[in-house]
Specification:
This protein is about 75% helix and about 0% strand.
């Protein structure tokens, strides 16, 4: 049941990242048209808007990557053959990911507070709009990685008992 709920949340994230990517095309297109054709005036706020959207696209993409298991992963040791060593290898990565996510969430709160006292230069938007993506991503990474760790443990238990 938890897995289905998390899968639905990840599907929402996929839809959101698609919508944001389409939305990102608008200010970028306006910048290109303004700079190279002169048909419309150069609006500097479009660059800020593109940056804000891009930050969210990256952070949401990282959340999806953790759920899908496609996050950055360096394999130093060969893939384990035994179920226990496989659990140790995957579990080690997932535990580190949980801890890293919790660090992002914890220190991201202060980062967001810092952003909340600043406004962007051109749009005048509160910088907390982008800064809040850091603790949110860290929290989601930790939740997704915790679930994947519980799945890995469950898989090992099933293999060990032979069921």
């Amino acid at each position: 049941m938890v897995g289905q709920l998390l899968e639905r949340f990840c599907m929402f994230l996929r839809l959101l990242i698609g919508a944001l990517t389409m939305l990102l095309a608008l200010p970028v297109a306006a910048q290109v048209i303004a700079r190279y054709t002169g048909l419309i005036p150069v609006y500097l706020w479009t660059e800020e808007l593109a940056t804000f959207i891009f930050v969210w696209v990256v952070m949401i993409g990282s959340m999806i990557a953790v759920w899908d298991g496609t996050h950055f992963n360096v394999e130093v040791l060969p893939r384990a053959k035994s179920p226990f060593l496989k659990l140790l290898q995957n579990g080690f990565v997932l535990v580190l990911l949980i801890l890293f996510g919790l660090l992002f969430a914890w220190y991201g709160i202060e980062y967001t507070k810092f952003g909340s006292i600043q406004n962007s230069v051109m749009m005048g938007a509160n910088m907390a709009v982008t800064h809040v993506s850091v603790p949110l991503a860290g929290l989601v990474w930790s939740i997704f990685a915790s679930y994947r760790l519980s799945e890995a443990i469950q898989e090992y238990r099933q293999h060990r008992t032979g069921s």
